[in-house]
Amino acid sequence: MNLLKRVKSLPARHTQSPAVLHESHPQAGPGNLSGPSRYALRFFAAMLVLTLVARGVSGAAMPQVSLTAPSQGTIVQQASATASISAGEGESLPLSAGITVDVLYASAGQTLKAGDAIARLNLTELQDALDAANVTLSQQQAELAQLTASPASITSTADSAWQTLTRAQEDYARTGDRTQAAVDEADAALTQALQAQDEAASRLEELQTQTDPAASEEELAAARQTLDEAQQAAEAARQALENAQNSREDELLAAQRSIEDAESALAQAEAADSQARSSAALTAQNNQAQADALQLEMEKNEESIALLTACIQSGGLICAERDTQLLTCDLTEGQPCPESGGLRLAKEGSELVAQFTLPSGQGDELSAGQAVIITQGSARTEATVRTVTEDSESVTFHVTAALSEEASGFRAGTAQAELIFSRTSYSVCLPVSAIRQDTQGSFVLTVEESRSTFGVRYTAQRVPVTVLEVGSDGQYAAVEGTIGGSVISSSDRAVSPGASVRVAQ
Q1: Which of 95, 245, 309, 311 could serve as a FRET partner for 199 with CA atoms 20 to 30 Å apart?
Q2: Does the keyword field hold Coiled coil (predicted)?
Q3: Which domain holds residue 446?
Q4: In this structure, are residues 269 and 161 in contact, taking their beta carbons and an 8 Å threshold?
Q5: Are residues 57 and 68 in the same domain?
Q6: 8-state DSSP, 84
């Protein structure tokens, strides 16, 4: 606008000096223009220049865009992950722990043929270990013989106590019989004495009542004497019976106490015997447990002796017994063999497996039986998914896939796993960069061409589309919509519908 004002002001300045204008320009003629005509021509020329300059400045400010044409294509849903290949099953190769590794010939992941050397162990240390193992075995055998020897017989005190009780019971019975006989005898004597007393009393009474003839004094005195003697004899018999009864009670009591003492002694003897048997049983149980443990130690020692002997016979070499794969090798030259797990080989007939992890969005779509492409260097094969395990803490899925039996050229180590979930063909596919989004939904921008006196003009036009599917790599998408031509796939600055653009050549 400032340039235009300057151009319009030019005639006014020139009209202030008409004399100069006349001196500078001759009269109009056949080959000359009059003064006003020349000024008009100059005015329109300036306007044209300014218009061209303005369009040039405006075009430089337009966004420059790149176009792409919609085309048929295939949208692929796939995933890739770094996998770890190993044998599905492995077994440890026995080693002599503590023996120094002089030379290491193989490394983890290496494929071995039968007879291939893996390591060489120190022969001097092997022989020293074998000698020490033989000494230990001799000691173990002697200790085992002591533990398994027949235990000494237990002397029972209960038998003697039982015999004492039996005799006490027999004595009680004999005492009872003997004292009862004495009591019975005393009782019989008392009965006879009382009968004699009654007879003597009856005789005296008879004499005292006799009247014809009356008893003499001598007869009465003799009868009284007989009665007194009979009474004394009855009293003596009564005392004898009482003594016999008292003696019976005393002897039976003594015999009963002897029985009780014998019963108590028997109970103590049986308790002592039971304790002795329990102690002997516990000792035998402990000895058996120690013997079992010692037997296991001896078996391990014998295995170690056999391993050491075989290793010495092979000159210290540890070799593969069959074609296999070295899964783990924790041996280091100059260092002793570890206690366990130093060498681990693929088990005979074991298949190779690839293990990898997928994020939840991809792992959700994976299931057992699905195919996986495993690549390791130049080797490439198809594997089958065996297990898919979700880790809820890390929101990931751990996948195990078995390589086909025909797979070759693979070894334990890192590989690449590729999974294809789907391949879908579409009639209209575009780069994802061409698809835009606003409050009204998804759309693309096409370029409309128009021509004028000043040239060709390109305008961005909004075309609504529906996104059907986006590839897993995020590069291309399938869309649905009425797209009349090429669409803007990229630009050097923001482009909005209706904006003028420059098309990159």
Answers
A1: 245
A2: yes
A3: 64-76+425-503
A4: yes
A5: no
A6: E
